[in-house]
Amino acid sequence: MPEFFSIMKKHLFYSLLLSFMSFSPIFSQDKVITLFPDGAPGEKVQLTEKSETSGETGGKPVISVTNVSTPTIALYPAPKDKATGAAMVVCPGGAYNFLSYNMEGTEICEWLNDLGITAVLLKYRVPRREGQPKHLAPLQDVQRALSYVRAHASEWGIKSDRIGVMGFSAGGHLSTMASTAFAERAYPVKDEIDRVSCRPDFCLLIYPAYVDGENFQLAPEVKVSKDVPPTMMVQTEDDSSYVNSSIFYYYALKQAGIPAWLHLYSRGGHGYGLRDTGCAVNEWPERAADWFREIQVIP
């Protein structure tokens, strides 16, 4: 019987948390902006967006969002007394089928704000669209997001040459695509915003997925050029399905002469965000802050 009440209390807690997140400003500290006011490219069916809990990590629930048809960005301005002029577009993971919206989204934005970086949380289209490459619709969304932030840089107190992108798992693949496929927009130009560069100035990849191919090669869609931005990667050896994403990408960047940093740990698995899971990899936020300073994103 005590176990029954414990389960019921946990279920009630998660239900209340979801209700709170649906109506509170935690999902957008400042404002939410629709990226394509006239509808996202190629969207024919309007899905009913939904949020749900999908287990726990580090003793806290993971809130997932799926059925996204209208991509948006949520702006988290850095506090005025800390603002450095840098900005970061944040891409949560979720296998391109859902978004780990709190663990790899809102919590990351709050951390960036503490460093004086304005965070821009991208809610890109999921799940995968039938008949399309898994990343095509999300790539359209992140390209538009980067251009939108740069187009509004002056208004938002951002330096137009200090706009980065970061992602987790599938969001890491998406951030890699944003860093390598910026020369050609993945959708027809719609307005003046789309004429603004969508190249990120720096890229942070946390346990990226899907970046590796066969025989120490990259996935075929990932094309490294000399213009790829400085990149830092974090992964663990026991993230067995995806560890080669960082290793292969690091090697390709090294071969191309792109400044790259790889932090590889033995244990930690996949999917932990900023949360404490009792592994050394949980120190990655400190290493990332050091990297931001080294590349002069923050003082």
Q: How would you sum up this structure, described in words?
A:
The model is unreliable at 1-28 (pLDDT under 50). The chain has helices spanning 2-23, 102-114, 136-151, 153-156, 170-180, 243-256, 284-294; strands at 31-34, 50-57, 60-66, 72-76, 87-91, 99-100, 118-123, 163-168, 203-206, 231-236, 260-265. The chain has a single domain (29-294), classed as Alpha/Beta hydrolase fold, catalytic domain (Rossmann fold), CATH 3.40.50.1820. It is an alpha/beta fold and 299 residues long. It has 7 helices and 11 strands. It is globular and about 45 Å long. It starts with a helix and ends in a 5-residue tail after the last helix. The chain has an 8-stranded mixed β-sheet with strand order 1-4-7-5-8-9-10-11, sandwiched between helices.
The largest β sheet comes out as:
8 strands, mixed
Q: Determine Rg (CA atoms, Å).
A: 19 Å
CATH superfamily: Alpha/Beta hydrolase fold, catalytic domain
- Count the E strands: 11
Compressed to H and E, one letter per element, the order equals: HEEEEEEHEHHEHEEHEH
CATH class: Alpha Beta
Which characteristics define this entry?
single chain, 299 residues, alpha/beta, Rossmann fold, 8-stranded mixed β-sheet, 3-stranded antiparallel β-sheet, 7 helices, 11 strands
Provide a compact summary of the structure.
With 299 residues, this protein is of the alpha/beta class. It has 7 helices and 11 strands. The strands form 2 sheets. It has an 8-stranded mixed sheet with strand order 1-4-7-5-8-9-10-11, with helices on both faces. A 3-stranded antiparallel sheet has the order 2-3-6.
